[in-house]
Amino acid sequence: MKQSAEGRLNAVETELGPAGRDLLIVGDVLEGWLSECPAGPIELEGEQATVAVKALAGGWSSSLVRALATRPSTLTELSEQIPEISYPALERRIGWMRTTGQIDALPKQPRGVPYAPTRWLRRAITPLAVAMRCERRHMENSPPITDVEAESAFLLALEVAPLPEDRHGACTLAMQTDATEFDEGQPLAGVNIELKVDGSKSWSVGLVAQPQTWAVGTVEDWLNAMLDGRFEILRIGGADPQFAADAISAMRSAVFID
Question: pTM here?
């Protein structure tokens, strides 16, 4: 962005505009995530960073992250869940993500070796979310957030979120991915959480028609809530609104706060 230089005739000064400043934030957050690599800090300017980011992008865009976030799966099981990707291509992506520390190999099972996300991969939601918000703010033709991406984000965060242990019931967290302003008539994508009296907990995709408790919002609402702590912009209601608020806070503290 250019502007006239004060006190100098026909001179201009160049400074970053809003998009440039937001891109700097994306770089800072990405650098922070790379520094947390389980194998040791990765320099942002190095080749290792390129490999790690490409592995993350490939897993995210192919629904591989979504499948692994649902439950640990073997290569054969992943191939059945993501038939649009060839077995060799899927094997390569698994290899890249495993080499860069984004997934772990679990003890071998009858159907093969299951793979599961590492905590570092779950923390990758932060640079992904910051980059998404930057794109949506400054790029008119930015790709829309898909239902699969929304579900992936919720699933990754919930696994490590310290959900409240002193209550039980069900709660729905949902995002309206195809609207800039919330519209009750538009479809939602998200997860259902269930906390049982015995202390066990579970979550699943595929929203219920009439949830007991809920927290819903647009993509921007959720990005601002998770990145800035602005929970008040979400629509929270039902039998136990505090349950939803506590679940959101737990996800943010586990994944989005350094």
Answer: 0.87
